[in-house]
Design goal:
186 residues, 0% strand, mainly alpha, single chain, 6 helices
Length: 186
């Protein structure tokens, strides 16, 4: 009775083997990405066109039913913000600014420089008034800027196909082969 044939131990993969495998596979991975990324983007665009409006309405309805007071407050603040952005300072605010400015510049209030100073300040006050409501609107909307366009997200096959991932895969396979080899020796 002879000794059983013992198979040779598998060769441990090298870094060079992994890099060569990566280089060999890269064109296939790149072609796959070129083929499927546009399809994924088109699918997302189609789904958004088909369902985004209904989904947004469903979210809005759910928000309003769960939090009616908060939703009503947001709508009220949004309306005030919209009206305030397009409005002029109220006369009481204008009068208060003018009275304070005239009191501060004293006898120069009627001079050319005083009138210019007052006029420029009043323009800035009015802009500040509108900016206040613009900021209220942005805060009420919960975001800034008001539109946030994004591109469709696609799978980036190239990001996970690296020499390191290829080496890890080869090492994992080596470990499995090594375990099989070891079990045959027992």
């Amino acid at each position: 009775m002879g000794s059983p044939d013992v198979p040779a131990a598998p060769a441990q993969p090298s870094t060079a083997d992994a890099i060569n495998a990566w280089i060999e596979g890269m064109p296939k991975v790149y072609q796959t990405q070129l083929q499927y990324a546009p399809l994924q983007a088109e699918q997302q665009a189609t789904l958004a066109e088909t369902y985004a409006g209904r989904l947004g309405s469903a979210y809005k309805t759910a928000q309003e039913s769960m939090y009616p007071e908060t939703s009503a407050l947001q709508e009220k603040l949004a309306k005030q913000a919209s009206e305030g952005m397009d409005s002029e300072m109220p006369s009481w605010a204008k009068d208060m600014y003018l009275n304070n400015t005239r009191a501060n510049i004293g006898t120069n209030a009627g001079s050319g420089i005083g009138a210019d100073y007052t006029s420029r300040g009043l323009v800035e006050q009015n802009k500040g008034w509108q900016d206040y409501y613009r900021n209220l609107g942005l805060a009420t909307a919960g975001r800034q800027p008001l539109s946030n366009p994004t591109s469709p997200q696609t799978t980036d096959y190239m990001s996970s196909f690296t020499p390191q991932s290829t080496m890890n895969f080869a090492q994992q396979g080596y470990g499995t082969a090594g375990n099989i080899y070891g079990s045959q020796l027992q």
